[in-house]
Amino acid sequence: MLDTLEISVKKVEKSRIEEVDFNNIPFGRIYSDHMFIADYKDGEWTDLRIQPYENLSLAPASSVIHYGQSVFEGLKAYKTKSGQTTIFRPMANASRLNKSAERMCIPEVPEELFMQALEKLLKIDSAWIPNQNGNSLYIRPFIFAMDDYIGIKPSDTYRFMIITCPVGSYYSEPVKVKIESVYTRAAKGGTGFAKAAGNYAGALYPARLAQKQGYHQLLWTDAKQHKYIEESGTMNIMFVINDTLITPEIGSTILNGITRNSVVTLARDWGMQVEERKVSVDEIIQAAKDGTLQEAFGAGTAATIAHIKLIGHEGVDYTLPAIEERKFSNKVLKALDAIKSGESEDKFGWLHMV
Ligand code: COI
Q1: What GO MF annotations does this protein's record show (predicted)?
Q2: d(CA 299, CA 47)
Q3: pLDDT tens-digit series, residues 297-315
Q4: d(CA 60, CA 66)
């Protein structure tokens, strides 16, 4: 993308990259040298800048702290085998960020601002993009309300930022999930489809209860009856039953996942039967009991594919087939990795070269 915006740059005096063990990267704890910032004032994004990664200074009354007016995104950059930097489907993230922003009364970030900021930041911190198999640079764009005002109203001032961190895998092992039948992540008309900070905070307590029972995550169900499965923890959920890929249809309570869309697109391209529809708890439990549930997995940017090894429901644990036997999720993970590393053809135009 052509640089048409003025973004000032102040670089670090000394990079921290030598402190990082790229063969052993924990998820989300190590940040690259630089970050991007833009401030929204008087109806426009101003003071576009890249500067060393450092702590922020905020007014204690900043509305984001009290009322959670904040949205974010997650996407990844990779190095192809030939050393080229590539970002996976960034325009889809730019578009979803603005859908989330609209729901939270946050001003939109123009796509060209999102893309130029991202590209410039990645060029400066190019050395931070891992080239080991399975590793990547996780990119976290976010916008939050900055007004120094304790009353409730949409803020007049905002900050848009992008930080990045080299990451390894999000889950170190296949996950055990519990079907949630008391608490709710999202209700019709709420903010479930948005990547809004508060959605994640509200999910922490029920997830903690499940963790105390030995599960890693929850399978969220609909708010009204807890009858239909919606998402898996912080990811979209997918099942393979009798060789058909089944996933809850996108709606106001479900995040429109970009990894979800990529998986569904590849499955259809391979001629697999795909159903995007309501998925009832009863259907999944029955399929787990009679052995037709061949696979269950979460799909999201951070984890890509998170295999589910066990589903808990009403005090009973259902163990699913061995991970090595799962044809589809293993194949799709491999196919996505091959596209991202430039080893196989980018048939759908998902890679954005920097
Ligand atoms: C992602 O998958 O990118 C997310 O935003 C989930 C978060 C828990 C890391």
Answers
A1: branched-chain-amino-acid transaminase activity
A2: 36
A3: 999 999 899 999 999 999 9
A4: 9
Task: Tell me the residue ranges of DSSP E strands in 154-210.
Answer: 158-167, 175-179
Q: What is the largest CA-CA distance in the chain?
A: 62
The alpha carbon of 346 and the centre of ligand 1 are apart by a number of angstroms equal to 24
- Residue tagged 């590209």 (tokens): 119
93 lines ligand 1 (CB under 6 A): no
Mean per-residue pLDDT, 74-88: 94
Whether the CB-CB separation of 307 and 176 falls below 8 Å is answered with: no
Whole-angstrom CA distances from 306 to 173, 273, 295, 296 are 8, 21, 11, 9
Ligand 1 nearest atom to the CA of residue 28, by list position: 9
Give the ipTM: 0.93
What the chain holds in terms of domains, given with CATH numbers, is 8-168 (3.30.470.10), 175-338 (3.20.10.10)
Asked if residue 172 has pLDDT above 70, the reply is yes
| 53 Cβ neighbours under 8 A, 6+ residues apart | 31, 32, 33, 34, 35, 163
Q: Which tokens sit at 3?
A: 């640089």
Give, for ligand 1, the residue of 140, 301, 305 to mutate: max count of ligand atoms closer than 8 Å to Cβ: 301
